[in-house]
Amino acid sequence: MKKRGHSYVANFEVTFDTQEQAEEFIAQGTSIGKRCEIDLEDPELVAMFDESGVSAEVDFVGGIFVDSVGTIDEELKKEIDAAAACGAEFTLSLRWVKDS
Asked: Which of 21, 62, 83, 97 is the most exposed place for a label (fewest CB within 10 A)?
């Protein structure tokens, strides 16, 4: 089966209800997790866990091939797996741009 190439921008947002949940996500070693580790040093940000939770968000620009099985960018998959492993809520939205 011939694969059709597409380009996309994937927006990934993960929300943590507790600091422990965020720390578990950070321990997974993903690129978003590394950025969260820096943010958790901010006392004002840590205080937000008591109020509304804390979100981290990133855009991935890449390419994906759509076939009968489907594949997804490995870095993005790591973020999804890490969020699922710690029980965090996450959303993923894609904006597709068809390759010419």
From this structure: 97
Q: What is the pTM of this model?
A: 0.71
**Token representation of residue 49:** 């866990």
Q: How far is the CA of 47 from the CAs of 17, 51, 54, 86, in angstroms?
A: 12, 7, 9, 20
Amino acid (1-letter code) at residue 70 = G
Which amino acid is residue 42, in one-letter code?
A: D
**Cβ atoms within 10 Å, residue 6:** 15
Q: In total, how many domains does the chain have?
A: 1
Are the beta carbons of 62 and 7 closer than 8 angstroms? Answer: yes
pLDDT digits (tens, 9 = 90+) for 57-82: 887 776 555 544 556 678 888 889 99
Of 69, 91, 83, the residue nearest 1 (C-alpha)? 69
How confident is the model over 6-35, as a mean pLDDT? 86
